[in-house]
Amino acid sequence: MWPPEHERFADRTAAGHMLGDAVAEHLRARATTTEKQPLVLALPKGGVPVAVAVADALGAEFDLVISRKIGLPWQSDHGVGAIAENGPAVFDLSAVAAVGLSVSDLSPAVQRERVELRRRQERYRGSRPAPDVTGRVVVVVDDGLATGVTARAAVRALKVGRPDHLIFAAPVCAAESVDLLAADVDAVIDIHSPREFHALGLYYHDFAPLTDSHVLQMCTQMWSESRIPTTV
């Protein structure tokens, strides 16, 4: 079933512009407690073009937070958990139990995804160090929130660094997942949060897959620009 036309975005960049305005409005309404430049962290791959637009709207520093889905042994694309950089594995325990597994049964998948996560860190960031989140407004951005397990892994890893204000933002978020994620962040910001969530790609007219080359091109451009702090 297709979502209503007013809930569909032209593409990830257009959605990012709308989302950037929403995040900026949230920050204007919040009493500022830090003068440090906001930090926008994209979840690759789909979150990168969205995050670029959000960072531009905020005049924020741009970087990545890499998270990997953990799938079932017989269906790797069915996510029941996730890991993020320097963070523990996070599982949807009800989904794991529903298929008759335990967390320990997924250990081989966790190890495989940690290898892939390190590959992506080296591929995307190279020798560039991960940004310091301490005392900063940090906005984690993706192109959508479905089950929310990869987002939870990312924000829980980031919380160890003690950001001042941690936000998750995506153009469209399943309402149930917003409710679950809310306990892990200071705010969840979206444009649409339907209770009946359809496949994420249906919310975009253009939802073409992104390659590593696309991600690298966008990151290189953002990292080569001088990001001047602005008041949002």
Give the CA-CA distance, first to last residue: 38 Å
Mean pLDDT: 90
Oligomer: single chain
Helix and strand succession?
HEHEEEEHHEHEHEH
Number of strands: 8
Stretches where pLDDT is under 50 for at least 5 consecutive residues are: none
Structural class: alpha/beta
Query: What percent strand?
Result: 15-25%
Strands across the major sheet, in which order? 2-1-6-7-8
- Could you tell me the radius of gyration in angstroms? 17 Å
Shape: globular
Secondary-structure blueprint of this entry?
Blueprint: H1 12-29, E1 39-42, H2 47-58, E2 61-64, E3 67-72, E4 75-84, E5 90-91, H3 93-98, H4 107-125, E6 137-141, H5 149-159, E7 165-169, H6 175-181, E8 187-189, H7 212-224
Helix pairs in contact: 1-2
Write a concise synopsis of the structure shown.
It contains seven helices and eight strands, in the order H-E-H-E-E-E-E-H-H-E-H-E-H-E-H.
